Every structure is written in C-alpha cells, then in structure tokens.
Amino acid sequence: MRESERRPRTRARVVRTVLGGWRLALAIVEVVAIVANFTYVLGFSAFGVSNFFCYFTIMTAIATVPTLVAGGVFALRRPAEPRALAMLRTVVLTHLLLSGLVFGIIVSQASTRDYRIEVPWSDQLLHFLIPVLVLADWLVDRFAGPLAVALPWRTVLWAIPFPTVWLAFTLWRGQAVGWYPYFFLDPAQVSGPWEIAMYCAAVLVIIMSMTGALVWASRARCLRPA
C-alpha cells in the first residue's frame, strides 16, 4: 500500500478509536447524571418517584446510554457503523437537543414570572452539557472521521414515534394521577386543548427540522468532492 493511501486509513482508525472511547465515557457521565438527578429529587417529599421516569429528558437520557455504548463499541471494533445505528444516534441526538431546548425555555420563562427553578449540576449535565457533547461527537464523526454513510431522509420520520408514544402516555397518565411533567401539557395551566395541541405541533416542527438538518448535513458530507 502506498504511503498516500496509508495515511488516511491511519487517521480514520485514530478518529474512530478516539470517538469510541469518548462515547463510552459519555455513557458513564450520562449514568452519573441520571443517578445524581434521581437522588436530588428524592429530597423533595412531595415528589413521586414514579414521576421521575415520566420526564422526556430522563427517558431520552436512559435511551442515550445504550446508544452511546453501541456507538462506542462499533467505533472501537469496526471501521464503519451500520446505517441503522447511525440513524439511531441521529434520532437520539435530536431528542437530547429537544430536551435541552425545552428546558432552557421553561427556565427562562420562569425567571420572567418571578418563579425560580433550581438547576442542579445534574440537570445542567442532562439538559445542556451532554447534548452539546453528543452533538460534538456527531459532528466530528461526520466531518473529521472516515466517510460515513449518508443518512436516508426517512430518519426524520423515525424521530417522531418515541415522542408521540411518550406524549400519549403522559396525557393519559396525567389525567389519571393529576400530574404532568411540563406545564404546557397540563389543561389547568393552559387555555384549553387547542393550546396543548399548538405546543405539541411546535415541538413536532422542531423535531422534524432538527433531524432534517442533521440528515442534510450527513448527505452533504457524503456528496462533497474528495
């Protein structure tokens, strides 16, 4: 093999190895953040333990852990990842970014209404730092690593089922127990069903837009001349 061909392959192996270790480390940090956040909310006597696992952020964080582990193992052991795993990582990234965006809006809105929301370090990890680090991993993998597979546009559709199922369960459970994880899903805190529908439609647009942007970026890299 000529030297000019060997160098890109060596660089690709180095990038994949670094990404593999990075993802496994991120999975550990995610677990620590989940456990720490659970421990934090246990300090509130009025908080139901079962409610903790109904937050979209927590459900997404739990799903992120095996996704990062799978991505890390494949990066360490294979020169490229399967298309299905690339799609899954993209969908999970979208949900992570969504949870951070929504939480940031809620915190900022609370501050304008003289209502203070505590943001412990575990929440900062879950909502802000980890989504940014996972996004950085995705970008490095796509633009600094070996040429990755182009994500199909149907990835956008695969980003919808999980939030839809979560929403249906949350509305059903909220009506049964009288508790909702977010104010915009609580009929008592909004003007009516139409406002809930409006918020949900806005979230759907955000999900599809973010996933679409990631898919476009992946395809642009693959179509770019060498």
TrEMBL record:
Transmembrane segments: 21-43, 55-76, 88-106, 126-144, 156-176, 196-217
Alphabetized UniProt keyword annotations: Membrane, Transmembrane, Transmembrane helix
Name under which the protein is recorded: Pr6Pr family membrane protein
